[in-house]
Each structure stands twice: as structure tokens, then as C-alpha cells.
Amino acid sequence: MAYQTLTVEIDDYVALIRLNRPEALNALNSQLLSELGNALAEADQNEKVRCIVLTGSEKAFAAGADIKEMAEKSFVEVYNDDLFGAEIDRITATRKPIIAAVSGYALGGGCELAMACDFIICADNAKFGQPEINLGVIAGIGGTQRLTRFVGKSKSMEMHLTGRFMDATEAERAGLVSRVVPATKLIPEAVATARKITEKSLVAVMAAKEAVNRAYETTMREGILFERRTFQALFATEDQKEGMAAFLEKREPQFRDR
Ligand code: CO8
């Protein structure tokens, strides 16, 4: 499908999705979020995709929800439309892994979108923030919940209350991102990381994603039980037999996703 607010390139089982509204620093409007939901759903269905990298431009991953589009809306309008609620749910419903490759600004909805991905690799020029407070609102697509779980209450509260930005070094120290790389290496590093994931059994990859997400969505007890059952269930796959046999035979596994 052709998109107006993003581009999709598929190469060697990695889908690279680039947000592309340079005139607004990739601000998230309804069209972009709807197209992103469609692109991710297509990637989920496409056998030629086993991992997704979501990125923006060098200057901005995304500078937030589109303020121009939102400014004049009433409560009833945003409530009736469930503004961006359904769109973000479609993004988090993606079953294949999504790596956010963040360069420049990831602010407001942009920071929330990055956090809705499975992990974040960022460039050394990245800036994360939840500056909605400066607009007289608060985060609306998960920021108060995800940032708090990722970096703890104190740092999250400060960011939400003051709107200050976190740079790449602080983001890595706080556990918001998995890795910081030089800006020029961001896409090659993110794609290389995605490619490593494409070599695994897709069944095991999707199961691992589901299990890790349980750590954020349920209690420890339920999460441990989910992990245990999922681990046990993977013994029903051919890939488990192949993976363990390959190790014992000192060769590379040939996974077949079944
Ligand atoms: N929305 C719309 N347009 C934007 C946005 C945005 N969030 N951010 C930047 N732009 C536009 C600017 O208006 C400007 O357009 P123009 O050239 O037509 O004036 C263009 O992008 C370039 O921006 P700047 O000239 O401002 O570039 P600077 O390099 O000077 O500054 C900043 C970059 C610091 C990123 C600055 O643009 C900025 O502060 N942007 C706004 C950041 C922000 O407040 N984000 C939070 C938005 S609210 C939000 O995300 C809510 C999420 C929850 C949604 C759920 C809904 C219920």
C-alpha cells in the first residue's frame, strides 16, 4: 500500500518504516497514526517481514501529537473519537517485534510512540520529553504509565510536571533506551539488531515478546506463570527440537517457524 506520511522498505526480512512529515517534525496526526497502524498490520501479515524498525528523521523521531490538528477540538470531539486511543492500541497489538530507532526529538506523543515499541535504540543527539504540561494538557497515549514503569516515579514525575527533556546519556542510564549509538550509525545498528532477531524462530520471538510484556501488564505471579506455560508450550514446536539439536551437534539452527 502507498502511504503519504511514511515510507516502508522491506529488505532481508526487516521492514524499515520511516515517519515522513518533515514540515511538522513528524508530528503525529490522524492520518499518520492511521497509516502507521495499517503499515504495521501489513508487516505483521507479510511473510517477508520478521522484525520492524520504526524511525523518523535525523532531527525528529516525532515532536509529539499534531498541535495544529488538536488545538480547537472540544472534549466531546476527542472523547467521541477516542483521540488516538484506537490507533495506539493497533500499534501495540503488533505481534512481530518493533525496534524504535530514535534520532533527535521524541517528545510528547513521539516519546510515547517510541515507548510503545518493544525497545528503543537511540542516537547520541536524541531528546526525550513529555512537554504536554506546557500546553495545558498531559500525556494521552501512555506516557504517564510507560515512562513511570521504565524510569521510575521520580524521574517520570519530574519530566511530566516540568516538561524538561532527557538527553541520550540520561535516557540510557535511566533504562529508557537499550543502547545509544552515534547518529550516523543509528539505522545500520538498528537494522543489524533487527536482522539478528530475524534469524531466530519467529514463534519463540513472538512468545518472548508476549512474555516480557506481561512484566508490564500484570502481577509478578501471573507473569511468572505466563512465562512458565509459554516456555513449556515451546516444547511443542519443531524449532525447539531443531535449536537444541543444533547446539548439541555444534551447527547453526535452521528454524522453520513451526
Ligand atoms: N505539532 C504540530 N507542529 C509541530 C509540532 C507539533 N507537535 N512540533 C513541531 N511542529 C512544527 C512547527 O510548528 C514548525 O512548523 P512551521 O515551520 O510551519 O512553523 C515546524 O514543525 C518546525 O518546528 P520548530 O520551528 O518549532 O523547530 P525548532 O527546531 O525551533 O523546535 C521543537 C523544535 C523543540 C521540537 C519544537 O518544535 C517544539 O517544541 N514542538 C512541540 C513539542 C511538543 O509540545 N510536543 C507535545 C505535543 S502534545 C502531545 O504530544 C500529546 C500526546 C497525547 C496525544 C493523545 C491525544 C489525546
TrEMBL record:
Its EC number is 4.2.1.17. InterPro entries: ClpP/crotonase-like_dom_sf, Enoyl-CoA_hyd/isom_CS, Enoyl-CoA_hydra/iso, Enoyl-CoA_hydra_C. One of its GO terms (molecular function) is enoyl-CoA hydratase activity. Coiled coil: none annotated. SUPFAM superfamilies: ClpP/crotonase. CDD domains: crotonase-like. Keywords: Lyase. PROSITE patterns: ENOYL_COA_HYDRATASE. It is an enzyme of class 4 (lyase). Belongs to the enoyl-CoA hydratase/isomerase family. This is Enoyl-CoA hydratase. It comes from Paracoccus aurantius.
